[in-house]
């Protein structure tokens, strides 16, 4: 999460601006393998995410969502086109995976402090910021515990706190709640909603769940079956700050069914390929 990587996307420090995109992809594509066996996984994709925006991507399994996120994180190079992240300070993108990615041999506090240690934030300040985040996620009393003593939901909260503690320029989240049961997932969605509405961190969030995308997103982008392209986008019609209560509104149900209609054909197409 937020760690140095071999192929950082081009990052150009520039003065803050309200409208210039924080993340920009142009004709971005990625394939795996060569020659006749090459597999077109993604694209071409054009995408702009503006500062403070929470963009959610939904799409059928295997359509290239993780590939897009891995390119944004600099873990993978594009085969064609480009993706750039505009930064105003040398702060990292922070990434949260499905499997938490926290370190079992570090205490909860040390896990949350991890990114700050990498940034060489002085220990006293780093401890204070990590404690503050532990309080915000309701885990203050677990500071000295090891992850083995935590439930799945608590581990995922630690991963989220660790990512947000570094105040990343952009937060990249790949199905962070996929491994959790439905109730816990709802609780953590609501918590993430509250946290990100406070921080207004620019976020690219990948999910299989339309509900999750609508609750959290300023914009929901729908991807086609592989090779994934963006085939539609919708803006959930809910003012911010919003709460999870929007789930019970007619607008929510209507948008969910509209998005499902868009996705259904893509999921079917993918099933037909298997
Ligand atoms: N390193 C790799 N080598 C070869 N093929 C890969 C590699 N990474 C991904 N792929 C293939 O690229 C396609 C897109 O994969 P990706 O993981 O991006 O999809 P996804 O939309 O995130 O899937 P899911 O929703 O199931 O997690 C898949 O067919 C996958 O098998």
From TrEMBL:
Residues 1-18 have a biased composition (Pro residues). GO terms for molecular function: ATP binding. InterPro entries: AAA+_ATPase, ABC_transporter-like_ATP-bd, ABC_transporter-like_CS, ABC_transporter_ATP-bind, P-loop_NTPase. Residues 23-250 form the ABC transporter domain. The keyword Mitochondrion does not apply. It comes from the Bacteria. Residues 1-23 are annotated as: Disordered. PROSITE patterns: ABC_TRANSPORTER_1, ABC_TRANSPORTER_2. Keywords: ATP-binding, Nucleotide-binding, Transport. This is ABC transporter ATP-binding protein.
């Amino acid at each position: 999460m937020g760690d140095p990587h071999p192929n950082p996307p081009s990052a150009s420090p520039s003065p803050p601006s309200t409208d210039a995109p924080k993340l920009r992809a142009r004709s971005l594509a990625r394939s795996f393998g060569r020659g006749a066996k090459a597999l077109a996984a993604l694209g071409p994709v054009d995408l702009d995410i503006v500062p403070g925006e929470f963009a959610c991507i939904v799409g059928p399994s295997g359509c290239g969502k993780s590939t897009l996120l891995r390119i944004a994180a600099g873990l993978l190079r594009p085969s064609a086109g480009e993706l750039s992240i505009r930064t105003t300070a040398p702060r990292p993108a922070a990434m949260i995976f499905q499997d938490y990615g926290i370190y079992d041999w570090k205490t909860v506090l040390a896990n949350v402090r991890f990114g700050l240690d990498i940034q060489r934030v002085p220990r006293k300040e780093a401890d204070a910021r990590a404690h503050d985040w532990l309080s915000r996620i309701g885990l203050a009393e677990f500071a000295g515990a090891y992850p083995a003593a935590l439930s799945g939901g608590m581990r995922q909260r630690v991963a989220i706190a660790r990512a947000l503690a570094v105040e990343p320029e952009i937060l990249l989240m790949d199905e962070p709640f996929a491994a959790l049961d439905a109730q816990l997932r709802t609780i953590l969605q609501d918590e993430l909603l509250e946290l990100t509405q406070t921080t207004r961190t620019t976020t690219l969030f990948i999910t299989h769940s339309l509900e999750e995308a609508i609750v959290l997103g300023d914009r929901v982008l729908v991807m086609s079956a592989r090779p994934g392209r963006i085939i539609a986008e919708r803006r959930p019609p809910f003012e911010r700050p919003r709460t999870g209560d929007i789930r019970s509104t007619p607008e929510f149900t209507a948008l969910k069914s509209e998005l499902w209609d868009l996705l259904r054909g893509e999921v079917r197409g993918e099933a037909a390929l298997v």
